[in-house]
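Researcher: Next entry in the queue.
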Amino acid sequence: MEDFHKTRRLPPYVFEQVNRLKAKARAQGADIIDLGMGNPDLPTPKFIEEKLIETIGKPRTNRYSASRGIPGLRKAQMNYYMRRFGVKLNPDTQIVATLGSKEGFANIAQAITAPGDVVLCPNPSYPIHAFGFLMAGGSIRSVPAEPGPEFFHALERAISHSIPKPIAVILCYPSNPSAIVADLEFYKDVVAFARKHGIFILSDLAYAEIYFDENNPPPSVLQVSGAIDVAVEFTSMSKTFSMPGYRMGFAVGNERLIAALARVKSYLDYGAFTPIQVAASAALNAPDDCIREVREIYRKRRDVMVDSFGKAGFPIPSPQASMFAWAKIPEPFRHLGSLEFSKLLVEKASVAVAPGIGFGEHGDEYVRLALVENEQRIRQAARAIRKFMDGADKTLHNVIQMPVKAG
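Model: Structure for this entry, 407 residues:
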């Protein structure tokens, strides 16, 4: 049976292949250490849960909510942006609540994309960045994920050679999957480029609060003078407050883009459950003690992973931010590609990672490891990988039936 038009534009979801192997191994009794999905394992802070429970008990909170977000929630996000970035926003025209940043990206794509429109997207990048626009009928042109000269060379080539001219460029820093960070000077150059060529900036800032250099917190593109004329930024409460299941995020910035997103959403949803929005407001209005605690936990896990995996023969570059590490596949296995290597780790080491190919073809020599297991489990994963690496020759010969590369 032939696929429907929109699903034909979507490749097989490679993460699902690893997920099936995980499920099969667990069904057979294996203890899988899951570093694949960026699914926070930390508990939601108690005061947020208490506010949720308190609000559920109040009259009328079971009714339809507000698609744009209740006024108190939008004001709380306004205050957060002023405290954190020094950016002043109008909660009525420049902020809309979303069901996580993923939904926000998917619906901004529906709101602004005409058939055939070209959008510039980093490669590798989080899948919804590209596929939200593909599902909306647009086309994707890849640009480098690293914020350097090649990024701007790619933008210039795209403006010169894309027909039609691109409508938007997507940014994601701290990056998912690669954990790359960008500074304010880079954002200034992107804003200048976007204003010059009349294109929009769509910035994913979901990992703004998960950073490890206290002197250099990740900036917002909206800190740049004139950015509000061309940019919308997406944030999420999933990682910052360990609230992934609450599905709470925001889009903020350019009024025209926010109005278009709000209009699309008004046809599709009534917003998150009101008690969730009230609890999210309480989180945003609270002191940042719990955010600092979360950040320190991820820092310790990062350090343990970098140390223990390195000793196991699997070098992990130390990420400056995000809850991910982005590591090249060890050389003897690199020719397999990231999907087959990820399958091997599940089958032979009982460790799950995310194959880099799932984030774009330029990610195929890498895997993404999420800091979602405790330090003891990370060390356990490293021991299992050490054992797996020690048997690399046998594994490659007997399981894959391919020779080990020299070097």
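Model: The radius of gyration is 22 Å.
Researcher: Noted, moving on.
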